[in-house]
Specification:
Length: 296
């Protein structure tokens, strides 16, 4: 079964072109599934019966996994068996009657525009690291990037003249995202005054945002910078790097942006994912109706 798992991992990487994060998550789920089956004396995926698959999901539920994690585990196992079926490794599919748990959709935490300004103002721009931090915050909010997209930005991905970023998102899908003149101003200042100091050892490999060591900024590095800045700004909300993306989308929609345009900028395949940002208060909706409906 270990050999089959290696084949499946190669399929996820080279055929589906998934991100390393997704590949790790799916293979982790499948390894747990196969280990559980081994503990029950099952030595081949072809011999797994639906009751055994259902029992594993029950155990994961009892362990306290969230509905989102359970849903991903079921999707992982289903995808694994689709692969096995397509490769003619087995015709068995014990996942046909597995039911996905109903997912409760939480509204994302969103920063107000005033809170965004507080974060920007709390960044110390008197040194090279502070200039870098301000440029990162401005960029992630101005374009609604995922943290991985921000940290993987290359110098060559920034088109100053056209005010566009070239982004490679989930599954290496490419999209062009607008960026504000204000954010570009901070990137330019960072490039002129700070980045050369961080890239003294020429280790940057063309990455835009660099750590103090001159290499690409890490997720953990960004987290630490963000947490310190939040404390300085006096913001008590539970803020994550993704909160900038939520705020970007919400602020655009609140100010009248088209939902499909926001979907394109975020790189969402399904517009229902974007619709979670339309959690606007009734007074705003009523005002929009009165302003724009011809018979209001």
């Amino acid at each position: 079964m270990d050999d089959i798992l290696r084949q499946y991992k190669s399929y996820l990487i080279f055929e589906l072109n998934l991100s390393s994060h997704s590949v790790d998550a799916y293979t982790h789920d499948i390894k747990r599934f196969l280990d559980y089956m081994k503990s029950k004396g099952v030595t081949s995926p072809a011999d797994v019966d639906p009751n055994q698959a259902h029992r594993l999901i029950q155990l994961l539920t009892e362990m306290g996994l969230s509905s989102g994690s359970l849903a991903r585990n079921i999707s992982s196992i289903r995808g694994f068996y689709r692969f096995l079926n397509s490769e003619k490794i087995t015709e068995n599919d014990p996942t046909q009657n597995l039911e996905r748990p109903k997912l409760s959709r939480k509204l994302p935490v969103v920063l107000s525009y005033e809170e965004i300004k507080k974060i920007m103002d709390a960044t110390d721009i008197s040194n090279s690291l502070g200039l870098r931090n301000r440029a990162m915050f401005e960029t992630i909010y101005a374009s609604g990037l995922r943290i991985s997209e921000l940290l993987n930005l290359l110098l060559s991905n920034v088109y100053f003249e056209h005010q566009i970023l070239r982004i490679f998102g989930k599954g290496s899908k490419e999209r062009l995202v607008p960026i504000s003149a204000s954010a570009l101003k901070w990137i330019q200042r960072y490039l002129e005054e700070a980045r050369p100091l961080l890239d003294k050892r020429n280790k940057s490999e063309g990455m835009l945002f660099l750590s103090v060591r001159g290499t690409a900024m890490t997720r953990m590095g960004f987290w630490k910078i963000l947490n310190k800045t939040l404390q300085k700004a006096g913001i008590k909300k539970e803020v994550h790097p993704h909160t900038f993306r939520h705020s970007f989308a919400t602020h655009l929609l609140e100010n009248g942006a088209d939902l499909r345009a926001v979907q394109e900028m975020l790189g969402h395949v399904d517009i229902s994912t974007t619709q979670i940002y339309t959690h606007l208060d009734r007074s705003f909706l009523q005002q929009e109706y009165k302003t724009y409906h011809p018979r209001s």
